Amino acid sequence: MGPFRFLLLFFFLGVVAAESPQTILRTTTQAVAASAFAYDHLYCDSWRLSVETNNARFWRTVPFRCSEFVQEYMSGARYASDTDIVVDESLAFARSVQIANDGNDAWIFDVDETLLSNVPYYAINGFGTKVFNETSFNEWVDKARAPALAASLRLYEELLVSGFQIILLTGRNEAQRKVTVENLLHAGYHSWRSLIFREDSDMGKPAVVFKSGRRAELEGQGFRILASSGDQWSDLLGFPMAQRSFKHPNPMYYIG
Amino acid sequence: MGPFRFLLLFFFLGVVAAESPQTILRTTTQAVAASAFAYDHLYCDSWRLSVETNNARFWRTVPFRCSEFVQEYMSGARYASDTDIVVDESLAFARSVQIANDGNDAWIFDVDETLLSNVPYYAINGFGTKVFNETSFNEWVDKARAPALAASLRLYEELLVSGFQIILLTGRNEAQRKVTVENLLHAGYHSWRSLIFREDSDMGKPAVVFKSGRRAELEGQGFRILASSGDQWSDLLGFPMAQRSFKHPNPMYYIG
């Protein structure tokens, strides 16, 4: 349904309800509000697409006019649906692959907004409309209570059973290893082959350099990187790339 | 606006209109129809995202349940809005670039669904729900009457004025050069530096191999490929990549 059809419906409601000049005034105001809403919705949906396709880069915060849109997207059925479809596509690929028995068929996962959801944190911190606050975010990470993204847990479990080696490659720091392991286990993840953090020597590297560098090392160790899953294009791009890359949705923040 | 809010509105309309058991029955049917519509809309919006992010690959036709969705998307305000935002992001990048005066700063464009719109053809051929028919599509191409995508023409004109060398790289065949030039000129495009088609020796190559191979040749000729614009990921991926890639929307067909 296009927003304009919604607008027509809204007008129809207004006309049906119109019984006095006052009512007409009120419904006109409602229609104007609906029109602005529809216009912003159209813009924000296009903005979100530009984020998800990597056309928009280096953005610091969600545009102010899209704050309600992103909140509704993240809290409603759309984020869950979008994540479900990513996982369905991932599983379709996984099932098409012949796994060797040498323990070298790897699937790489990012952690934040890919396996774990920080929505409980962002829900009380503006859903991406505020500039990233490292101090308060690290306090949230230290609690180790980020829930699993349900669809990702479904994917993870099937990959494990299928014999994929699961490698977690996160932009979190080595100093956060203990709480991260605790959080992953608490959320239901287990049996990963390795969990790779940023070391001191990686500080200051763009994420895409850090992550593609680690993929090169993994290939050097004999792994065949069949797939990567991440909510940022910097999880996926750079040389070497996985055979297939799966972009999970995230309109709340950008990491270059 | 989430589809469920639309559903609530629909119920409200039903309740207001309910005056007899027959009316109630009819409005219940409407509500069920609205529910199926909302469910399909949610699914199809997620499917479209998976297409635009390159998570879904090698699909042959638009899913049957999404035929109305794609028709509405392509015909309504959303396709135009999405294309507008891609162009806004492209121009923001173009304006940030310092152009050298050596005539080597290149911007590569794909043609179909990037500069020219084949919507008039697809509108009478199922909007991607039918398997691609090369014969009828080539008849359409021979007419040389595909209109410009308005936003792309706006981008193209500003790039020319800014001193970019514009290179058109299309999957069309060399045999279609004459009608393609005629169509591009008719649609308002002009002054490209070169227009590259598939030669006989490129037949059978996947698009991504053909196009990245041509980019390598262009770099060999001294071009700096600052950006690529295309509606297919096979226009953009592969080595070498442009400094920035801009994915234009296209939920109607897939080229690998």
Characterise this structure:
Two copies of one chain form a homodimer. With 256 residues, the first copy, chain A, is an alpha/beta fold. The first copy, chain A, has helices at residues 3-17, 21-52, 67-75, 77-96, 119-123, 134-143, 150-162, 177-187, 207-220; strands at residues 105-109, 165-173, 194-198, 224-230, 244-247. In chain A, strands 3-2-1-4-5 form a five-stranded parallel β-sheet, with helices on both faces. The longest helix of chain A is centred in the N-terminal third of the chain and has 32 residues, at 21-52. The two termini of chain A are 34 Å apart. Chain A binds chain B through residues 1-4, 6, 9, 12-13, 16, 37-38, 41-43, 45-47, 49-50, 52-57, 72, 76-78, 81-82, 84-86, 89-90, 239, 244-247, 249, and chain B through 1-4, 6, 9, 12-13, 16, 37-38, 41-43, 45-47, 49-50, 52-57, 72, 76-78, 81-82, 84-86, 89-90, 239, 244-247, 249.
